Amino acid sequence: MNIDVQHLAKLARLHLDDKEIEKFGRDMENIVAMVEGLPDTSGDASGLDPEHPMKLREDVISTEKITREELLSNAPKMQAGCVVVPKTVE
C-alpha cells in the first residue's frame, strides 16, 4: 500500500523533511497492515475470546439529585455562575 505522506502533511499543515516522510510512511503502512490483520467483528463481538466474553454494564438511571454547586465544584474556572472555557473562535 502506498500512502502519500507529503499530501497528508500538506493537508495537516505539517512541515516534514525527507527522513520524517519515509519514517511516517513506514509507520502508517505498518498501522494499516495491523488493522487489516484484526479479526472480523461483524455481529456479536463477545465471541472474540470465548473464555473471557465481554459483559457490558447495565445502564442505571440515578434518581439522586445533585446540586448546581456540586456539579460546578470541579470546574477549573467560573465567572458569574458559568464555566469559563478557552476562546475557540476569533
Give an overview of the whole structure.
- The chain is mostly helical.
- It has a domain of 32 residues.
- 34% of the residues lie in helices and 4% in strands.
- Strand 1 and strand 2 form a beta hairpin.
- The radius of gyration is 24 Å and the shape is flat.
- The chain starts with a helix and ends in a 7-residue tail after the last strand.
Provide a brief overview of the structure.
The chain is mainly alpha-helical and 90 residues long. It contains 3 helices and 2 strands; from the N terminus they run H-H-H-E-E.
Q: What is the ordering of alpha helices and beta strands? A: HHHEE
Please tally the β strands and state the result: 2
The radius of gyration computed from the alpha-carbon positions, rounded to a whole number of angstroms, is: 24 Å
Q: What is the overall pLDDT average? A: 86
| Helix segment tally | 3
The biggest sheet amounts to:
2 strands, antiparallel
Strand order of the largest sheet: 1-2
The assigned structural class equals: mainly alpha
Strand content: under 5%
Distance between the termini: 40 Å
Low-confidence stretches are none
